[in-house]
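Teaching note: in complex prediction, the entire set of molecules is handled at once rather than each chain in isolation. The prompt given to students was simply: 'Predict the structure of this complex.' The entities are:
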Amino acid sequence: MPSDPLSYTFHALADPTRRAILASLTTGQKTVSDLAEPFDMTMPAITKHLKVLEKAKLIERSREAQYRPCRLQPEPLKDIDEWISEYRKFWEESFERLEEYLQQLQTKEKNDE
Amino acid sequence: MPSDPLSYTFHALADPTRRAILASLTTGQKTVSDLAEPFDMTMPAITKHLKVLEKAKLIERSREAQYRPCRLQPEPLKDIDEWISEYRKFWEESFERLEEYLQQLQTKEKNDE
DNA sequence: CGGTTAATTAACCATATAGTAAATTAATAG
DNA sequence: CTATTAATTTACTATATGGTTAATTAACCG
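The expected output is the structure of the full assembly:
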């Protein structure tokens, strides 16, 4: 388990349950029971997922009476977005090549008329 | 190991060696030995990392004589970019709130003059 | 106080990962 | 054909992950 922040974030996102938890938090803060409800999984399993998300700083937790509400912390996603932006030109280039190819096809069709 | 494509991609990216390999491939295709060279790691370890990247469709491989050149396949990064774009508004909102707060500070300072 | 609800911790299990060294495959070069 | 280079496969290790059940902590309610 590499311990640099970017690896932690990617690792935390590499699980559909954890991504679903994040999605669920986009509508506002939730308790652990709220978050666990849609999943066919015991509470300790959810607690573990939340720890992974917390370690990656993707969520923040507080305490309200016996509840421990979680809320989304988008900063690490921003870091991933920045990392990935270095690669954006590669799929944009592919897209340009595709466009070019499609234009060539169209030109060819016109010539065939 | 969740087997949906997005989880595979995030998992593949959750390792600094694999991200460095991808970065190295941005300058063009490379052989396995080329890719292994900067790392203090044996060849089989690199082969394993390449398999993870290949399974995630982040690289594509071919054969040229006794070499097996790798090249970048950016499509899965595009998928991640699309996934993350759903969350973009969250850090943009935070930024807006910060801007708002800074403006309030400035207004306050003017009133204090 | 005693009972209930929310959540975590502890102990455990099966499987996956990340690496190694040694053996093997595949193609080239002489 | 033989030796060399590139890379993979095999077999093995240690550690991490993702889940379970049972026990424990923490705060509220009557």
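Point out the following to students. Residues 1, 15, 17, 41-42, 44-45, 48-49, 52, 63, 65-67 of chain A lie near DNA strand D (CB under 10 Å from a C1'). Chain A touches chain B at residues 2, 4, 6-8, 10-11, 13-16, 19, 22-23, 26, 72, 74-75, 77-78, 80-81, 83-84, 86-88, 90-91, 94 (CB under 8 Å).
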